[in-house]
Amino acid sequence: MKALESLNISGSDVLPLVEGGKGISATNGASAGAWAAAGGVGTVSCVNADNFDENGDVIPQIYYGKTRIERHAELIQYGIDGGVRQVQDAHDIAGGKGRIHINVLWEMGGAEPVLEGVLNRTKGLVHGITCGAGMPYKLAEIAANHKVFFHPIISSARAFGILWKRAYKNFGEWLGGVVYEDPWLAGGHNGLSNAEDPRAPQDPYPRVVALRTMMNKFGLENVPILMAGGVWYLRDWAHWFDNPEIGKIAFQFGTRPLLTKESPIPQGWKDRLMTLKEGDVLLHRFSPTGFYSSAVRNDLLKELEGRSERQVEFRRKAGVDEAFNTEVQIGKKKYFVKEDDKAKVMQWVEQGYDTSMRTPEDTIILVDADKADEIRTDQKNCMGCLSQCKFSNWSQNPDTNYSTGRGADPRSFCIQKSLMDIAHGASLDTNLMFAGHSAFNFATDPFYSNGFIPTVKELMERIATGD
Fold first, then answer.
1. Domain identity same for 367 and 235
2. Could you tell me which residues come within 8 angstroms of residue 318 by beta carbon, excluding any fewer than 6 positions away?
3. What is the pLDDT of residues 127-157, one digit of tens each?
4. Which of 23, 72, 95, 411 is the most exposed place for a label (fewest CB within 10 A)?
5. Is there a domain that residue 360 lies in?
6. How far apart are CA 309 and CA 424, in angstroms?
7. Same domain, 26 and 146
8. Can you give the pLDDT at residue 89?
């Protein structure tokens, strides 16, 4: 593969290699600073970012508020303080090289105040913002006000077209790049639409060509596309370089940077990555955001699959629907189900799943008593980590009395708790372990043989060779 040529991203010529921002504490100032210092674009995750005390120890994010609204305010302040600290660290480590971006999820709780708070306190240190997980219409305005470039994360030309026409065209000079994230292959939350089949992956090439065609119609020929999701060996993408159908192109790496010396994830997580096999990463829809997401199919995801499988429709009274006239009793609760479902329910109860929980869709799931207590406790402790949460029914909208208007959904889980726990050394089996679908390459790529973990600089030098 020919030598990589620099590309102007967020106002400076850098290597076309971008570190993907990865949720809670999986990408921080240390990893982002090292990536920028090596000549690329480092990305600080500003989703519940860690802050440190005077001894360099992580400050636990403990919530003291008695209400969700009070805890939500604490969450925002934690997010701002942690984001500022991580950006400062990244800036110091980068030493003036590369570019520093920050990453937020538009559907995270308090996205706007966290973004504003971090940018207000890090003037001149942040060069760009990447943002996805929703339709971030206000992203361009916020970026322009702070004189930083914005990089929306989208999964289709149609999504970008809507954003451009409705909001971004007024701030086009600050559009630093467009991140195309493959919704079938990327780790974390993905942008699959309801019209797309999660079981039928599409070739990214024609989708990116469609994006470039649309961008060119808007006069954005010189704005690079950042390809994300499924990127491992650059040699596999050689036909994208100097390709007029693709135009200016850079590549964003999310999963590979997890396995570096500077990566902040625990050592046990790094060790597990080296054991993954093809098919171990599951594209699922258990996230309380309602979006599809990709993560390692561990005990947590298997347990969530089990909850949904132990599910039947019900009615509270007989006679409401003639198909639901068969009575079952689960503990002290009575339900009317379809005749064919009674045997299944009784079998689940005999297996120890003897506690029923209602969903917002006139169904019940069956879990054991301990799991029911855990679910209810997590729902009660909600701090509003999402703008809307189907697990706890929280909404940050005061006009709806901070509620989605739907019942809490026990088929989901507290994502903030799970991601915080796994990032700080808790169980890899019972917490959400995000990863892209190319993660199985860690076990087969000779670069990682004998358990080798590279520095960020060594990884980027390896990527630049095509491997």
1. no
2. 324, 325, 327, 336
3. 999 998 777 889 999 999 999 999 999 999 9
4. 95
5. yes
6. 31
7. yes
8. 98
Gap between the Cα atoms of 381 and 68, Å rounded: 8
Predicted pLDDT at 2: 79
pLDDT of residue 189: 87
| Whole-number Å distance between alpha carbons of 408 and 450 | 46
Helix or strand run (H / E) with residue 364: strand 363-367
**Are 211 and 322 found together in one domain?**
no
In a domain, 435, yes or no: no
Which CATH number is 219's domain given? 3.20.20.70
Residue 252 has φ and ψ, to the nearest 5°, of -105, 130
Measured distance CA(109)–CA(120) in Å, rounded: 19
* Cα distance between residue 43 and residue 185, in whole Å: 20
Residue-range definition of the domain harbouring residue 315: 299-423
Whether residues 210 and 168 share a domain: the answer is: yes
Radius of gyration of the chain (CA): 23
Report the Cα–Cα distance between both ends of the chain, in Å, rounded.
9
pTM for this predicted structure: 0.94
Strand partners for 365: 311, 357
Q: Does residue 283 belong to any structural domain of this protein?
A: no
What is the spatial distance between Cα 266 and Cα 287, in angstroms, rounded to a whole number? 23
pLDDT at 135: 78
The stretches in the chain having pLDDT less than 70 are: none
Which residues, in sequence order, are CB contacts of 450 under 8 Å at separation 6+? Answer: none
Q: Report the domain count for the chain.
A: 2
CA distance 129 to 127: 7
